[in-house]
Amino acid sequence: MLNKEEVRARIGSFVGQENILIKQEDLICYTYNAGGAAPSSYLPILVALPGTAEEVSKVVAFCNQNKISIVPRSQGSGLSVNAIPESDCSIIISMQRMNTINVDPETLTAVVGPGAITSEIKKAAAVHGLMYPPDPASFTFSSIGGNVATDAGGLQCVKYGTTKNYVSGMQVVLASGEIIRAGGKCIKDVTGYNLTQLFTGSEGTLGVITEITLKLIPLPQAKRAIRVAFSEIENAAKAVSAIMTSGVVPSIMEFQEQTLIRAVEDYTHAGLPVDAGAMLLIEVDGDVSTLKPQADVIQRVCEQLGMIDFHVAETAEEAEQLWVARRSGLPALARVAKGRLGGDPAVPINKLAQAVHMLFEVGKKYGIKVSCQGHAGDGNIHPHFFFNSDEEKKTAAKARSEFHYEIIKMGGTVSAEHGVGREKSPYIVKQLGEAQVNAMLAIKKALDPNNILNPGCIFGGQA
Fold first, then answer.
1. Lower Cβ count inside 10 Å, N or C end of the chain?
2. End-to-end Cα distance, the chain
């Protein structure tokens, strides 16, 4: 068994001593991500910042031989406690230095490093009149590696799909240290198993992603942003399904209820309808000539469900203010209570109103304040359970757990875009069934027989 100093010396020889972090104040930062900390916060032995796949390969092979756990990580923006150590015999591999972006407009692809920031990829594609559609709320600071590892969603998923729809290939370092390439730039490729999709959403439990090939699409010619207010939450939720079956497919359709509207307005002063029970923030895109007809259909649908206000943004700046208001939800909610527990469940779109109703029923049952927002067009709801003390936090946790089980009963999923992480591992057998979870564990065992890759993530104590 190697001691910490020996491990630090060996890994430093692979990546350069200047590219490892060992000071306590640095290591503590890596025991948290945006979703919080593990139940027990262990300091990693070190944080390695490799610059190439070959360096990653050497680190992983060494750790596999010595049974040292590895947690791949970049920006730490995960919301399901995905990328933090579970023991003091582990290291963090940070992908931050591997942040190259190479757009190939002739093949409508971009080859990027896992540490590249998502917004920077979008900007690089836009220079060529192209778009990388997935846009998680954290896209200005989250990395593409984390987005791929969790199959991140975002506002535009309702029309364009999640991260997995745009990953056509990747380079991965396996637990053995071997480097493989899956997929590539071909539009069609059905040779062998689709390992690209297997590693997408695997949350660092099957391999370390060191390069990603992304599909790009042409930028839409124009966009139009719309804000619709309703007096009743249920009517706003019903409008979502009605719009989605009207023949119009919005590029964005977001939902916010009154508590959140008021918190965001207090935070951003965006001129939101604070007396509304709920509102929808909608965007349509495409050829300029199609925008007004799409907006007219949405207005007619919402009128039938009792809307109280319908506003179309007149300028790009006004439209951007709406999306800033949407993305300001979490910081705005910091003013509502001392703490909150969140989530990212989803239901079929025709059950969104039922899910919203159930959330408030659960809140009443446990006597706690709740709120919600979400990517309503794809049935993805973000519930918030507020607390002001340790005792209330325990109550909020019970309420959230019951809500998750109700979501499963509706045919929904406990995670639509943040990943399972450690936070939602207690629910996966209930949602997926033992046979499916065992099949996943068999894949994990085959690719990572020593269970060194992000142990405890997704499967809890089962892997």
1. N
2. 22
∠ at Cα 360 (354, 364), nearest 5°?
140
| Alpha-carbon span 121 to 133, nearest angstrom | 10
Q: How far apart are CA 401 and CA 395, in angstroms?
A: 10
Q: How confident is the model at residue 36 (pLDDT cuts 50, 70, 90)?
A: confident
Q: Quick count: other Cβ atoms within 10 Å of Cβ 131?
A: 18
Residue-wise pLDDT for 152-175, tens only, equals 999 999 999 999 999 999 999 999
| Average pLDDT of span 401-412 | 98
Name the β-bridge partners of 278.
230, 257
- Over the stretch 110-126, which tens digit does the pLDDT of each residue have? 999 999 999 999 999 99
* Assigned token pair, 69: 């756990």
Q: Which amino acid is at 122?
A: K
Q: Which two tokens stand for residue 384?
A: 């918030």
Cβ atoms 70, 453 nearer than 8 A: yes
* Residue whose structure tokens are 């509304």: 276
| Residue position matching structure tokens 């032995």 | 45
For residue 368, is it left (φ>0), alpha (ψ between -120 and 50) or beta?
A: beta
pTM: 0.95
Residue 88: band (very low, low, confident or very high) from pLDDT cuts 50, 70, 90: confident
CB 439: neighbour CB atoms within 10 A?
A: 12
Position 111: which residue type? V
Per the CB < 8 A criterion, the answer to whether 92 and 45 are in contact is: no
Using alpha carbons, list the distances in angstroms from residue 222 to 130, 132, 177, 288.
13, 16, 46, 6
Q: What is the largest CA-CA distance in the chain?
A: 70
Residue keyed to tokens 């990693």: 44
3-state DSSP of 344-365: ECECCHHHHHHHHHHHHHHHHH
Strand stretches in 133-243, DSSP E: 167-173, 179-183, 208-215, 217-218, 222-230
Contact 430, 405 (CB under 8 A): yes
Q: Enter the tokens of residue 119.
A: 């917004």
Report the alpha-carbon distance of residue 100 to residue 325 in Å, rounded: 31
Concatenated DSSP letters for 78-90? -SSS-SS-SSSSE
Is residue 438's pLDDT more than 80?
yes
Average pLDDT value over all residues in the chain: 95
Pairing between strand 90-94 and 46-48? parallel
Residue 405 backbone zone (phi > 0: left; psi -120 to 50: alpha; other: beta): alpha
pLDDT at residue 272 in the model: 94
The one-letter code for the residue type at 180 is I
